[in-house]
Specification:
509 residues; alpha+beta; 9-stranded antiparallel sheet; globular; binds flavin-adenine dinucleotide; FAD-bd_PCMH_sub2; FAD binding; FAD-bd_PCMH-like_sf; oxidoreductase activity
């Protein structure tokens, strides 16, 4: 089939992300709003850091500083200018940095892969940004059951290391996404139905605490910290190493297929039935996207991944046989190649607005969702460069079973037999001047989705941290017991609340 000629190329990568109008949890200062409010001037924080860490601290206008600041995914993050960037290469460096910053009450941000979509999540105006990308080791254990990954690595490198060994790890779908942020926020990937979320597969964390101590968190050492880090975000310490379980994976069948709205009813029924299937095939990884740009109008762009080299397996045939297919790029490939290929189709440097929501799998809700979505496109159609993508991801009971088999997490996701549908907005556009228009449209769309789900009795309050919008409060949706547990663990390991007060970026307990 002929490939499309216009901007559809970018849509399949718009798999993720989100923002909303709910409660406030993330501290996400715009450059204008940001304040260091510390008892030391930012410059003296940087001077003290330089005394301790020398050339690992870079100042504005240096090449190291510029390389760090310009390499975030979201344009919003690149517009934030810290007083200095510290680039540790070991846990001891991270410890040394915190021993300088914390007693001086210097405000700081922690940057992993830099793929967060919220301004200020991993960068800080006039503060100190700790850029972890120098923590980039990847070591496979001798029994090949685990891989130890530095806290600043990206999934593409992990998959590339494991691929020749016939192995993989549960992680993000796009290669450039950071292991750090995505794992601490849960980590829903292609193979979650087979092996659980990324966070479920962390056998051991190496963590630098607020006081500079370097500790191990595992089922046998600081077990409550280990559990809290499985979805609790950056509230407890800086993770300098993730020891991840591996699983066997050879070649896969994967790719994208685009459909005109003619396919809608067939696609909707296929999504409902696949998600509700009591015999769900756990090799299945699926994302259905509703995608809009002014040049294409609304279309449907599916991403299929099957964990075996089987072309068009039965699990996807209700999708692949539906009318209105415009393009199909599926092939037998590898996870390493497929995830790396996502990088150019979801490029750095654009403004981003995101949100996350969830509802019970319901045919009428799915039918109404398309209408709610297409109506929302009118609010952004005039925005320069807009790509307005709503991703729908099946959340099936097999995932919960895998999570609990691996020691559980703090996400509090209860998955009914008929499954859930996770909904993620990714709005990508060119100019900061359009931000208010896009954010308002996103807020309205989220409110309409929630209202429709509530009116049908299918609303599920869970918000995925990795795709949450700046005003959403994911941890508040994990359930009262998990929230209380996370607060208690934060108090135990960080009694003065450094990772909330001095590190304002990220979603807080
Ligand atoms: C194109 C794209 C595709 C995506 N696909 C997926 C997907 O398939 N599945 C999924 O679950 N999510 C996905 N995401 C969302 C992604 O998981 C989140 O944006 C995540 O926060 C990115 O992590 P990062 O380390 O790259 O980001 P950063 O912006 O660097 O960090 C995000 C947060 O994590 C903290 N953090 C990062 N590393 C550490 C560390 N080592 N120790 C302590 N704190 C740390 C930061 O301080 C910050 O608060 C995708 C995002 C994009 C842009």
């Amino acid at each position: 089939m002929d490939g499309p000629v216009f901007t559809w190329r970018r849509f399949p990568a718009l798999l993720a992300l989100a923002s909303s109008c709910v409660t406030s949890s993330v501290a996400s200062p715009t450059p204008q709003e940001s304040t260091t409010n510390s008892s030391f001037w930012p410059q003296s924080c940087c001077d003290a850091l330089r005394s301790s860490l020398g050339s690992k601290v870079s100042l504005p206008n240096s090449s190291a500083y510029n390389a760090s600041i310009s390499s975030y995914w979201a344009q919003q993050e690149t517009l934030i200018h810290p007083a200095c960037v510290v680039s540790p290469t070991s846990a001891r460096d991270v410890s040394a940095a915190l021993k300088v910053l914390v007693p001086r009450r210097c405000k700081f941000a922690v940057r992993g892969g830099g793929h967060g979509a919220v301004a200020g999540i991993a960068n800080i105006q006039d503060g100190v940004t700790i850029d972890l990308r120098g923590l980039n080791s990847i070591t496979v254990s001798s029994d090949r059951k685990t891989v130890a990954v530095g806290g600043g690595q990206k999934w593409a490198s992990v998959y590339a290391k494991l691929q020749p060994l016939g192995l993989a790890a549960s992680g993000g779908r796009n290669g450039p996404v950071g292991v750090g942020g995505s794992t601490l926020g849960g980590g829903f990937g292609y193979f979650s139905t087979q092996v659980g979320f990324a966070c479920d597969n962390v056998a051991r964390f190496e963590v630098v605490l607020a006081n500079g101590d370097i500790v191990t968190a595992s089922p046998t050492s600081n077990a409550n910290l280990w559990k809290a880090l499985r979805g609790g975000g950056a509230n407890f310490g800086i993770v300098t190493q993730f020891v991840l379980n591996t699983f066997p994976l050879g070649s896969i069948w994967a790719g994208d297929a685009y459909f005109s709205p003619e396919a809608l009813e067939a696609q909707t029924q296929a999504l409902y039935s696949l998600t509700a299937n009591p015999n769900f095939d756990v090799n299945t990884g699926l994302v259905v996207n509703y995608a809009f740009s002014p040049s294409t109008g609304p279309i449907i762009t599916n991403q299929y991944v099957y964990a075996q080299p089987i072309i068009n397996p039965p699990t996807f045939q209700a999708f692949t046989s539906s009318p209105g297919q415009l393009m199909n790029s599926t092939s037998v490939t590898t996870l390493a190649a497929f995830s790396a290929a996502q990088e150019p189709i979801s490029p750095n440097g654009f403004q981003q607005v995101t949100f996350s929501s969830l509802f019970k799998n319901d045919l009428q809700m799915l039918r109404d969702l398309w209408n709610i979505y297409t109506a929302s496109t009118q609010n952004v159609a005039a925005v320069t460069g807009i790509q307005w993508s709503l991703s729908l991801e099946p959340v099936v009971p097999a995932i919960a079973a895998q999570s609990s088999a691996r020691g559980g997490n703090v996400l509090g996701l209860s998955i009914p037999q008929e499954g859930l549908i996770m909904v993620l907005l990714t709005a990508t556009f060119s100019s900061a001047s359009d931000y208010p228009t896009v954010q308002t449209a996103a807020d309205q769309l989220l409110a309409n989705i929630i209202q429709a789900a509530k009116s049908k009795g299918v609303y599920a309050p869970y918000v995925d941290m990795n795709h949450a919008g700046k005003s959403q409060d994911p941890i508040a949706t994990y359930g009262a017991a998990n929230q209380a547990f996370l607060k208690a663990v934060a108090r135990q390991y960080d009694p003065t609340g450094v990772f909330q007060a001095l590190m304002p970026g990220g979603f807080k307990v």
